[in-house]
Amino acid sequence: MANGAGFWPARGPGGGNQPGAEQLFSVRLVVNGASRNVSVPARRLLSDCIRHDLRLTGTHVGCEHGVCGACTVLLDGAPVRSCLMLAVTADGAAITTVEGLARPDGTLSAVQQAFADCHGLQCGFCTPGFLTTITAALAAKPDPTPDEAREIIGGNLCRCTGYQNIVRAVLRAAELLRAGEHGRERSAAPHAGRADPGQGEAGRADPGQADPGQAHPGQGEAAS
Questions:
Q1: Over 114-137, what HEC string results?
Q2: Inter-residue contact 73 to 100 (CB < 8 Å)
Q3: CB atoms within 10 A of CB 37
Q4: What are φ and ψ of residue 79, in 5° steps?
Q5: CB 112 within 8 A of CB 102
Q6: Structural element, H or E, at residue 30
Q7: Looking at domain 101-190, does it have CATH number 1.10.150.120?
Q8: 147 closest CA partner among 200, 184, 73, 77
Q9: Which of 7, 57, 88, 178 is the most buried (most CB within 10 A)?
Q10: Rounded-to-integer distance, Cα 209 and Cα 14, Å
Q11: Model pTM greater than 0.85?
Q12: Residue 2 and residue 4: Cα distance in Å, rounded?
């Protein structure tokens, strides 16, 4: 039975009930390359653990339903919605947040540099989720087409940019990764050597134009 404060009693270390307390579980994580140990209740979301227990506030919480993608982190290299995971289920996992994308010396990653080059953010609230999502996608597919770039970001929502510059940033990041030049030099042309995805090219739709049968990334059904 719940106590007057609205909490379920938890059994304490001594075996007695402690009204208002919750049983804590030890969770070991490797976060951005560093081993971290936290004690959390069973119901603590991974997003809350990252933000409040680990104090890594770059991971943002938006919809809390796994739709917007703002809370995306990398779990053993794969993008996951941290608002849909319990922290205890990540025990023993390696987690990369947006704070862990840059090099140890502070040099921006290729994806971060590409967002700066292509003006891929405005308010920045959704940006951490885009950065982690794109980082994982480019590790699997290092040379995406403009259509594939749109598909990569299709599960993340942005209310500011209209996605045009984010698509350009995906292609720019791929160029930087292939050239191995991120952190060493910045080209004046955001996507030299490839047609501007904002200028429609033969056989490919302009990213600002809705393709028949394909949802625009800003539509709710495009998010997964």
A1: HHHHCCCCCCCCCHHHHHHHHHHH
A2: no
A3: 8
A4: -70, 135
A5: yes
A6: strand 24-31
A7: yes
A8: 200
A9: 88
A10: 64
A11: no
A12: 7
Residue for token digits 């990653």? 109
pLDDT digits (tens, 9 = 90+) for 51-96: 999 999 999 999 999 999 999 999 999 999 999 999 999 999 999 9
Spans of all domains in the chain: 25-100, 101-190
Q: Which CATH superfamily is domain 25-100 in?
A: Beta-grasp domain (3.10.20.30)
The tokens describing 177, both together, are: 């990764």
CB 208 within 8 A of CB 164: yes
Structure tokens at 176: 């930087």
Q: Cβ distance 153 to 202 under 8 Å?
A: no
Contact 139, 131 (CB under 8 A): no
Helix ranges (H only) for 64-214 are 110-117, 127-140, 146-152, 164-179
What distance in Å separates the CA atoms of residue 148 and residue 151, rounded to the nearest whole number?
5
- With CA atoms as reference, report the closest residue to 136 among 163, 100, 179, 168: 100
Task: Give the per-residue pLDDT at 181.
Answer: 53
Give the count of beta carbons closer than 10 Å to the beta carbon of residue 150: 22
Nearest to 32 by CA among 119, 91, 84, 93: 93
Looking up tokens 């050597």 gives: 193
- Bridge partners, 39 (sequence order): 26
